[in-house]
Each structure stands twice: as structure tokens, then as C-alpha cells.
Amino acid sequence: MDLHFTGIIIAVACFLVIGLFHPIVVKTEYYTGTRYWWMFLVGGIACIAGALFVAAPVASAVLGVIGASALWSIKELFEQRERVEKGWFPMNPKRKDEYKRQARETAS
User: Residue 87: left if φ>0, alpha if ψ -120 to 50, beta else—which one?
Assistant: First the structure.
């Protein structure tokens, strides 16, 4: 009987990648706000494009998962800002004015 571990390896990689991107989004929002969302876009597109050219199924799948997670992180980055404004996550005291300014711009 042959055992095939490809699916399990990809599942573990997905779990680890998704788990890694959560703190990356939280830290990115805390230190820089949403201004670097475009880096997630570029990285995501690059990884997905790279997955198209990698012949190894596991490596291709992992690149695709990293790319999709990076693209999803753009949405999460902006939602993280909202969670900070609601008080669910700590606000960077050095960037308090950015939150107040955005709240004023949204209200007008």
C-alpha cells in the first residue's frame, strides 16, 4: 500500500500560512496603518504568478496559498483598522491622530 502525503503537506502549509498572516496584518496596521496595502497586492500577485510556473505540485500549491492569503490580507488590513477604532485591538499611540482624522473625514 502506497501512502501519499501531498494533501496533508498542503493542508499543514495552508494552516501555517493563514496563521502567520494574522499577526502580520495586526502588526502592519499597528505600526504603519493601511498605507502599505499595496505590498500585499504586489506580493500576492507575484506568488500567484509564480505558482503558475512551478512544476512541483506542493510548491505550486503553497505559493498559491501564500498569494491568496496576501490578497485576502488587504481586506483584513482595512478591517483591522476598524477593529482598532472599535477598541477591540490596541491603538498605536504614535498614530492616534490618523484615527481621529479618518473618523472626521467619514462623518463629513
Answer: left
Q: 38-52 burial, b if ≥16 CB within 10 A, otherwise e?
A: eebeebbeebbeebe
* pLDDT tens, position by position, 67-106: 999 999 999 999 999 999 989 999 988 888 888 655 555 5
Q: What is the pTM of this model?
A: 0.85
Collapsing DSSP to helix, strand or coil, 88 comes out as coil
CA-nearest of 13, 27, 10 to 73 is: 27
Gap between the Cα atoms of 33 and 107, Å rounded: 20
Provide the grid cell at 15.
Answer: 494552516
From 85, 83, 79, 77, select the one nearest 102 (Cα to Cα).
85
Query: Any long-range contacts for 7-16 (C-beta under 8 Å, 24+ apart)?
Result: 9/58, 10/58, 10/61, 10/62, 10/65, 13/58, 13/61, 13/62, 13/65, 14/65
